[in-house]
Structure formats: C-alpha cells, structure tokens
Write a structure and sequence with these properties.
alpha+beta; two-stranded antiparallel ribbon; two-stranded antiparallel sheet; 2 helices; 4 strands; 35% helix
C-alpha cells in the first residue's frame, strides 16, 4: 500500500505531511498507549456531552485502523506474482 492522502475533519494529509504525521503519532502514542485515548469511559451517560474529538486523536485512530485492517495477499499465477 502506498500512502497518498487521508482527510480528517476537513484537514488533508498528503505525502508532503509525513513528518507532521510522524510527530503527531509519536506525541499521541507516548501520551496514550491505546486507541481512543481522549475518550473517558468512566463518565456516566447522563452527564456525557457529545464529544468533539481533536484531529490528532482521529488521525492516530484512523491510521491504527488502516494498519490493523489492511491486508495484502500475494497471488501466484504460474510464475507471475502480483500483490
């Protein structure tokens, strides 16, 4: 898979933003060891306001989902291998 572009909350990240993406991932992963680090499940439902998540957390969770769910399976057709 070749990264081209991802859009999170109207912010577009392209190949030119790879350094920024790395910095965001390093910052958020150091702060929270699991996805949804900004989501507090201890808050009771009746007191809960709609959560507007920050782009950094959304970016980390979206890239985690891509990494976990993406699968490239090579296919062999005779002597030719394709991905």
């Amino acid at each position: 898979m070749i990264f081209k572009k991802i859009v999170i909350n109207e912010k577009q990240y392209t190949e030119e933003h790879l350094e920024e993406i790395k910095n965001v991932l390093n910052k958020i992963c150091a702060k929270h060891k699991s996805p949804m680090g900004d989501f507090d499940i201890s808050v009771k439902e009746e007191n809960k306001k709609p959560l507007r998540r920050k782009n950094d957390y959304l970016l980390r969770d979206a890239l985690t989902a891509l990494a976990v769910c993406h699968n490239v399976t090579p296919v062999k057709d005779g002597n030719e291998t394709t991905l």
